[in-house]
Predict the structure.
Amino acid sequence: MKRNRVLAALLAAPLLLAGFPAAAQAAPDPDLKIDSITLNKTSVAVSGLNTAPVTVTVKGTYSGDSPVNVILERTGGTGSQRTLFSTNLPRLANGTWSGPLQVPSTANGTFKVTGVLTGPFFPGSGSMTDPTPYAGPSLAVTGTHQPKITASVSPKVVPFGSKFSITWAVTDAQTGKPYGSKVRVVLGTDNICAEYFGPGYTNLTNTSGVVTQSHAASDAEWVNCLLLPGNPASVGGQGLVVARPGIVTAAPSKAGAPVGAIVPVNGVVQGAPSACKVYLQRLYGATQWKTVSPAGNIRSYSGKFTLNAQPAYKGLIPYRVYFPKCYNYQAGVTKAFYIRGL
């Protein structure tokens, strides 16, 4: 199960920053009716790790007394943030909710109000209902000195069963230099990367913007991340899955067979990267290995596979199984084995 989740994360687009509502929800809250949504500003400028407040006011009707969260979606620009959420807007008077939207520099671009969630906001799963759609006003954001997040893993390729560490750095993308002060960040694994739980899960970098975290061997099976904390969702982040070695073993089911007969070759790829392929190769001449059978599928959970060899001539024939680089798995090859053509 873990391995499939890792591969799913790798197949996806770059890390979805924490705070997005769950995709599998029902429908908008039928009790919420929106009359209007206004912003007290049409544009805002924000720099570095700061946020700029914009007052959001919602008018409408709702039978409950919970806060609401206004959602804005990117319509233009180049910032890394694709969606903005207002803070939990309290109900001030009958039919009115108002409070701040904290705009980060990573928003840089244009955002438009697209809907309202009945709160309170909960990262990852969001509300029990979908947002109530509303085509509202737009906000132009000029974000400068946006944070850039980089990471290095030690060891670079993490052996199975081994501990590892990740050194993260947060720098000013505009200058290439650190911000000169300690930066509060969230260092997460697995669920934390998708369900940022707020400032309780934070760490501090040093004044160079660098922080190193040690990980248990089991953390290599998951997405690891650094998030920049915000209110109510993170305002930036980077995720990674550590590189794994390509360890593949295989052996023929029999030592020899008549020329043209099929000989199953059974093997296993450590880590069970089930979305990847393996290839049977035969030695031509002294050094040239060529693929001689269709790609083989690696089975989920077990990592096992079966390929079919077919001796092409009489005598001892060298074979091997090749595993090309696939997602976070490095390329690997078995030792040569032999099938005698009879």
Helices lie at 2-11, 191-194. Confidence is low (pLDDT under 50) at residues 1-24.
